[in-house]
Amino acid sequence: MSEVEESSKTQFSTSIPTQNIEQQPPQSQQKNQSSSQKPKRRANVIGAGVSGLTTALLLQRNGYQTTILAEFFPGDLSIRYGSPWAGADWRSNVEMDDAQLQKFEAYSFKTLWKLSNVAPDAGIKIVTIYDYVDKKPKLRRDQPWFKKIVPNFKVLRKPHLPANCEFGVSYTTVSLNVPKYLRWLLNQFKESGGQTVNKRLAHIKEAFGPDIDVVVNCSGVSARTLGGVEDEAVYPTRGQTVVVWAPHVKSIVTKRSTVAGNYDITYLIPRDDGQVILGGTFQPNDYNSEPDEKVAREIIQKCDELCPELTHGKGIRSLEITSHNVGLRPSRKGGIRIETEYRKRDDGSEILVCHNYGHHSYGYTSSWGVSCEAFNLIETAFAKRQEFEVAFTNDNSKTDQMVEKSESKL
Ligand SMILES: Cc1cc2nc3c(=O)[nH]c(=O)nc-3n(C[C@H](O)[C@H](O)[C@H](O)COP(=O)(O)OP(=O)(O)OC[C@H]3O[C@@H](n4cnc5c(N)ncnc54)[C@H](O)[C@@H]3O)c2cc1C
């Protein structure tokens, strides 16, 4: 099984709200805001990658006074900060039987599509994608789960396929200029009253302030090393890319191959500013932050073969290279960790923690859906706690029953 397939399994519990969450709060929160006497809950979000920023924005816009605690913010570059290195496009690799992740990716697609219309400064561009594979897949990939979600879906057959490809699809999707998009998310968050603290946490409990109601852990690949989390299922998948100036490339082109059991992908993703990101590699457990010159040459060569308009037949030396990049995808055996638990502060009191990490190669593709899930899990946990407290006050005989019920569900 390819690594992409392996990481696309998820652990989910609640459904996402159907409202347009970036413009209108979910119903539960509308109720919350209407009772002006009720103090706002306070949230600390660890991480300012696409997962942390999206979750923090949702919380802040929906009644939580939210602070992002992070070592790196938009504008920073580090091998421990995956989001700035992404392509990024919305392209799904979810298996036909993973209904939850499909739901989250569908929701993200709709939100990103809408944002591309209403937020011109967010760096989201509508583009056509040509997605090819070398061997016709055994599973019926000509009927992918998302064919009804994306506009203009078509199956491509010979002669509309490049050399050495047996299958392909095309459709309309979105590409994101990630540095711009991350800055936009952060600005939206701050304009909504969100706070930021620039610090590196050695242990998750550093986020458990006495006045904090919930901590959301969006620490990406660092979930493996962050004290109190230390999730050994998390590992990096290195991706090397080359960014070039090529405003004449208007479409995303990708080719996936399976070479001796290894997953290999060649891709060109145009951004809204004339740059095109060329990729790439999938190297599990490789932390090397230095771009490899030979690999960079191979990437450019493969991209030129796949999309000759890249160099207009002038040869790869004619390309204007903007940067050589390396990023780590936050991969996780078992897929995304999206769940809540109660942890103890040093004084013995309890605090709600929601984990949201392990997004591998689909952090943008799933971002809005998974962040909504985090929001719903948090709201559900508070609602259950409230139910328990009411029952405890009203009828002590129900206490044992309620404890069992809450513990089994959290
Ligand atoms: C080459 C490449 C191409 C990609 N292409 C795509 C694509 O086309 N589409 C797509 O959907 N995805 C793509 N991805 C994947 C995507 O980039 C990731 O899934 C996503 O960025 C993960 O975001 P994150 O917020 O979970 O983690 P990160 O972006 O890594 O953010 C982690 C945050 O947590 C903070 N943090 C961690 N530990 C601590 C600590 N101890 N104290 C304080 N702060 C801490 C960090 O400072 C950072 O702010 C690509 C990735 C790569 C590398």
From TrEMBL:
It comes from the Eukaryota. Residues 23-37 have a biased composition (Low complexity). Residues 9-22 have a biased composition (Polar residues). SUPFAM superfamilies: FAD-linked reductases, C-terminal domain, Nucleotide-binding domain. GO terms for cellular component: cytoplasm. It holds the Pfam family DAO. GO terms for molecular function: D-amino-acid oxidase activity; FAD binding. Its cofactor is FAD. GO terms for biological process: D-amino acid catabolic process. Belongs to the DAMOX/DASOX family. This is 3110_t:CDS:1. It comes from Ambispora leptoticha. The lineage of its organism: Eukaryota, Fungi, Fungi incertae sedis, Mucoromycota, Glomeromycotina.
